[in-house]
Specification:
Layout: E1 2-8, H1 11-21, E2 30-34, H2 41-51, E3 66-74, E4 77-85, H3 93-98, E5 108-113, E6 127-134, E7 137-144
Parallel strand pairs: 2-5, 2-6, 4-5
Antiparallel strand pairs: 1-7, 3-4, 6-7
Helix pairs in contact: 1-2
């Protein structure tokens, strides 16, 4: 297990941190995102997607619960990246009823905001990321499991 902490003074730094984190990713990973509303979790994921070559829009999955993206690594390799936001869940059974279990597989990368809302039903994370407010920006903490 390794830990990494970084101070992020602004949105540009958050995007760049996401772009750099993208270099660590490969199919089959689960990433938990922790942090208050509006702290920059979706901005970080936008940076990750940019780092993986995605050039389209990146929307917050707050109302849709999940936003899917197809990432083309090269002509022979691609994966699905799923960005979940479970904030609106009232209990863990909603995750099960939504049918999200099949999204977590060896061909996808899953980012999950508010993972605690699914209780123990989610797979264990490969990375635990926490973004928090500090006096002069944000603090990014990454724990690799």
């Amino acid at each position: 297990m390794s830990n990494f902490t970084l101070e992020l003074p602004d949105e540009a730094a958050t995007l760049e941190a996401g772009r750099q984190f993208a270099k660590k990713l490969h199919n089959g990973l689960t990433v938990y995102l922790h942090g208050d509303l509006g702290v920059g979790k979706t901005t970080f994921v936008r940076g990750v997607l940019q780092g993986l070559g995605h050039t389209g829009k990146v929307k917050s999955p707050t109302y849709t619960l999940v936003e899917p993206y197809v990432i083309e690594f090269n002509v022979k390799s691609s994966c699905n990246l799923y960005h979940f936001d479970l904030y609106r869940f009232n209990d863990e059974e909603e995750w099960e009823a939504a049918g999200f279990r099949e999204y977590f597989n060896e061909h996808s990368i899953c980012f999950v905001e508010w993972p605690e809302k699914a209780g123990k039903l989610l797979p264990e994370p490969d990375f635990d990321i926490k973004i928090s407010h500090i006096a002069n920006g944000r603090k990014l903490e990454i724990v690799e499991r």
